[in-house]
Every structure is written in structure tokens, then in C-alpha cells.
User: Fold these one by one.
Assistant:
Number 1:
Amino acid sequence: MSSIAAVLWVAASSPNPDPMNTCGLVRALESSRVFSRCQSQRVSNGRRKQTTKIMSCRRGRSSVVSSSLVVNPAGEMTLSSEEKVYNVVLSQAALVNEQLRSTSPVLDDVKKPQDTVRPGSLSLLGEAYDRCGEVCAEYAKTFYLGTLLMTPERRKAIWAIYVWCRRTDELVDGPNASHITPMALDRWEARLEDLYRGRAFDMLDAALADTVTRYPVDIQPFRDMIEGMRMDLRKSRYNNFDELYLYCYYVAGTVGLMSVPVMGIDPKSKATTESVYNAALALGIANQLTNILRDVGEDARRGRVYLPQDELAQAGLSDEDIFAGKVTDKWRNFMRLQLKRARMFFDEAEKGVTELDAASRWPVWASLLLYRRILDEIEANDYNNFTKRAYVGKVKKIAALPLAYAKSVLKVSS
Ligand SMILES: CC(C)=CCC/C(C)=C/CC/C(C)=C/CC/C(C)=C/[C@@H]1[C@@H](COP(=O)(O)OP(=O)(O)O)[C@]1(C)CC/C=C(\C)CC/C=C(\C)CCC=C(C)C
Ligand SMILES: [Mn+2]
């Protein structure tokens, strides 16, 4: 195991499991006061055509699920995943509304809670953040490149968030994944609750504990990401896009919600806080859909098919075609629709980047443009995502930086 992998490996052995360890979304829904408002704003497209469902777009919100209500396997009407997740977006936006738009620089580079820090611990904290930076550089060159374009304080905070996310993913995807049980995830969640109370288990947790005292980053998206990992343990097929959307929210949309409080919103922005959060959610979903489309072959070799089963069937395809890994016209047509949907989420995300604090736009544009390029590479590979990994080369990566810069300065979307 490399030293970085060793750092990521977590014993997940905190005592003190949280008795309130229930699904975050359910809790958010139960306590949601905004649901009735959402319903009155909704434009329903009906549920007849699956293909229009993929392409439809609702005002101000990415919308790939055509109805707010869906029928579950027991035949009951339940809220669609999009609606459940939107309720989380609203509650997150409400939590931070004013703080994020403050013109005073308290959230960046100035607010240093030094009076609560013991002598010597500042340098330890510095080391902890440096370690987070190393892990980010090792595992995610593109994100790391993006963070180098940020202010030093924000960069450190994003590294700490990155490392927590990576360690969480590593629990179910890393070398020790076969030993991971739902109980280990419960312990990981208890550790999270502890670090939010200022009791960090190790130095990487300490970096995040510090970050959440400096920026108004709520715990809910972190809990929800753990829920996504629980989902990964118990599920390897997704019946429809509604199910996949919820998974993408858990493992990636949450990253958008964690990041906005660090990135900040432009004090001059006229956009609502919800719409900015919604765009951040869309960026996470777009990134995860891109991951899924890039890694079809790799995932299939691990027995996983994230692509919606009903859409595969509509295209005349099944799991067997994926395991066979042959690029046919059916596959190309299917992939064209999937790529189109992922691009819709990137388009939705673009609207929000321009509303971020000026100092955060460049890195976000850079990572958005680079991640979206992966979709172009899948096309360039003639949709062979079974045996060819779509990859954006170094030259293209570097070339994207001035374009991202221009977009962030000109404040344009698309
Ligand atoms: C308004 C607006 C647009 C604001 C921007 C908000 C923002 C910065 C959003 C970031 C969204 C983002 C980067 C999402 C990450 C999605 C992702 C890649 C999720 C991965 C999940 C599991 O996938 P899988 O197992 O299939 O993939 P691997 O093969 O294992 O890679 C994750 C691995 C979950 C964990 C996520 C991370 C480790 C990435 C976290 C990234 C950051 C905190 C950095 C964000 C920084 C910049 C500069 C965008
Ligand atoms: Mn993973």
C-alpha cells in the first residue's frame, strides 16, 4: 500500500456510534417546510415519454425526471429523487443565505480562530492541510490544478473537503473495500459527527474540523455522501434515472453543496442562493454521470452497471451487451442520449458559476470545462467506453486554463 493510500485507509473504529444515524434525506424531507412551495412552482410534463424525459429542462432547475411523483415498486406514489434532492438544496441555501453574500471578508483569509488554538497546534494544523494538498495532488490532478487557482485559505479548505470525500469513497472502492460493512460506515459517520463537535480522530479530520469552523459548511451533505456509499454496498443496478439521480446526488451532488460555502457567492450577484446551490448540485451530478459514462467497462468488470436499466431496454440493450463490450450502432445511439443528458447538467451548472465570488470562478470553470471534455473524448473514441478510457491530455488541460480565465472574467455562461 502506498503511503498516500495508507493515509486514506481509515480504521473507521471510532467508539461512540451515533444513535441518530438515519438517512439524511429522509430527515431533511420530514423537516421540510418548503415542499408545498416547490409543488406550486412545478411544471409537470407528464410521465409518458421516456425519451423526452431525458431531454426536458425545467425553468431554473435541471430537470430530467418529468414528474415530481413516481410510483415505487410497491405501487405507492412517492416523491421523485429530484424533488427530494431539491428540498435539501433549499434547506442548505436557507442555512447560509446571508453569510455567503457578505461583502466583508470574514469568510476568507481573515477569519482565523486563533484564540481557540493551543500553542504548537497551528503548525500541526498547517501540516494537516499540507497533507490534504498532497493527497489531492496525488489522486486528482485536475481538481488539484483547479485548487491552485484559488486563494490560499479557500484552497486549504477545499483540500480538506476533498480528502474527507476521497477517504469516504475509498471505504467502498479502495483496497479494503471487501471488508467494509454498513457498520463501518456507521462508525465513519460517528467520526464525522465528532469532528463537527471539534473532536477530530486524526490529523486529516482535524483539517476538516478547522475548515467547518471557518466556513458555513453544513454537515448534511457529508452525511448524505456516506448514505451514497451505503447505497453502493447494497445495490449494483439502477432501474431508472430517478434511482441513478439519487445515487449521483449522494456521491457527487453533495460535493457541490459542500463547496459553495467555501467558494462564496458574488456579493453583487442578483441570483438567488438556491439557484447557485442548484447549479453546484448540477455540476456534481454532471461530473458523476461523466464518471459513469467513462467507466462503463471498468464498472462492468466489477459487476456494476450504473446505467438505467429501463433506458438500456428501450435501446434494445441489456447487461449482457455491456459485459460483451461490443460497440454497436445500438450502443452508439444509446450513448449519444446519455452524453446529451450529462451535457445538460453541465449547461445547468454553467449558469451558477458566473454567480460565484470572482476569486472562485476560474477554478470552477477550469474543472467544469475539463470534466466536460471527457464526454468529447468518449465520442472521439467512437463510444468505446468498454476498453478505452476517455482521457483529456496534458496539453488540452493547460489550454483550457486561459479559456476558463476568460469566462470567469467576462462573466459569461457558455
Ligand atoms: C455554482 C457552482 C457551479 C459551484 C461549484 C461547486 C463545485 C465546486 C462543485 C464540485 C463538484 C464536484 C467536483 C463533484 C465531484 C464528483 C465526483 C467526481 C464524485 C466522485 C464519487 C464516486 O465516484 P466513483 O467511485 O465512480 O469515482 P472514482 O473512480 O472513485 O473516482 C466521488 C469519488 C466522491 C468523492 C468526490 C471527490 C473525491 C471529489 C471532491 C472534490 C472536491 C472537493 C474538489 C472541488 C474543487 C474544484 C476546484 C471543482
Ligand atoms: Mn470511487
Number 2:
Amino acid sequence: MSAVPKPAPSPAMLSLQGVNTFYAETQALFNVSLEVGAGEVVALLGPNGAGKTTTLRTILGLTPARSGSVAFDGRDVTRAATHEIAQSGIGWVPDDRRIFPTLTVARNLAIARKKTRFRAWSEKECFEIFSAMEYLMHRECENLSGGEMQMVAISRALLGSPGLVLFDEPSQGLAPKVVQDVMKTIARLKREGIAVLVVEQNVQSALQVADRAYVMNAGTIVHEGPASELLDNTTLRMQLLGV
Ligand SMILES: Nc1ncnc2c1ncn2[C@@H]1O[C@H](COP(=O)(O)OP(=O)(O)OP(=O)(O)O)[C@@H](O)[C@H]1O
């Protein structure tokens, strides 16, 4: 009897395999492997200094892997330049929001626009998500509140037509209402089919929006599983994350 062939698993949007990353001679990532599927939200959790930001920097080619591989959208980008990686459809919302402080919101948005193979977002759609932003267009970014800057940073990532958005501690320093808005935006991106990898200290918020979670410690992945498992299993969550 011939076996029914299983459908091939759909390739991950992002795949890290056995990544080792160094700052000069100091190793920060040890054999890190992780995947984010198309349209999947994945949380990357762990204590300070665990290697979460370094993982994002490795994906973006800012601190490239010394060994192992990073593939995005079926292409090896391990040694690609950061601008090529962005051009291929990885958006980034950095923890310092990295918008140009002396430029207006409008200018910050205009220079973020990119064409990729993924869906293009318009400014109008960004205003639908962040209604306040339309009225801030002519303000210089240095005069914005933390929450307003975060809206601009997320809109910049969307205008770059991403297939994957990397968020580095998006709720840091924001009021609870704004944190909720950011998490709602992540859920909206998922509904739009955009993959998300989110680094967060705010474990509860991240787990509520994520499909799966990885926990890092001392540069290694120490746990991988459904987000619901960490939400529901207090003992496991305390043991891995102390919260
Ligand atoms: N520019 C750098 N030069 C040298 N070592 C660094 C640099 N950036 C980070 N490290 C080290 O790499 C390790 C991982 O740091 P990383 O910032 O990736 O952790 P993290 O999990 O993002 O923590 P945090 O939540 O504090 O940002 C730490 O030991 C840190 O001291």
C-alpha cells in the first residue's frame, strides 16, 4: 500500500540555524536556532543580557553571525548588507525608535517608503491605525511624546512594505493604554499576514499577542513552545522568566 504523501511544510518566513554571534572576541549568541512562519507572531523573551537584541541585530546584519545561517523569505541573508536585508522586506522597530529627531513626521515617513515583493502600505492606512498621527505630520519628531514616536516608528516599518517586522521592546517607557495600542497593532499585522518577531520585557502583553515564544538565557535558547503554554503554566513561567 502506498503511503499518502504528506504536504510539504510551508517554508518559514525567517529561519536561524545554529547561529553564533560575537562582539569582538566575546561570544553573545550560542547555537541559536529559531523560526517565524509567514503571518506568525513570535515572542522572544528572557532576562537582561540574554541576547535578544543581539538576535535582532544578527537578523538585520548589524552584527552578522560568525557561523550558522539566517534565511529570510527563502533566501540566505547571513552575510547580506543591512540595507539589502531591509530592501528584501524586514521592517524594524528599534527600542530607541530611531527616527530622525529634527525632521518632521511627514519627512520621517516619506524617507521610509520602500518597494518589496510584499504588500505596500499607504500613509492613509497608517492613519487608520494611528488616528492621532495625521494631525502630527508637520511636527518635528523631537517634540513628540514616547507614544507618538512609537506610532511613527511602527508606521515607518509598515511603509517599508515588510513581510516580517522585528519589534525591540515596543512597550518600553509607554503608558498602559499606548502599550495596548501597540499590541493591537501587532495583532492587526498578523491579520494582514505579516510575520512578527517581538522582543519584550512585558511578558504578559507579549504572550497575549504571540502564537509561539522562545526564551533565551545567557545567549542560548532555553525554551520554545506555544505562547499559551507560558501564559497558563505559572510554574514554568516563573522558572523561566521569574514572573
Ligand atoms: N555592543 C556590544 N559590545 C559588546 N558586548 C555587547 C554589546 N551589546 C551587547 N553586548 C553583550 O551581549 C550580551 C547580550 O546582550 P543583548 O543586548 O543582546 O541582550 P538582551 O537580551 O537584549 O538584553 P536587554 O534586555 O538588556 O537589552 C550581553 O552580555 C551584553 O553585555
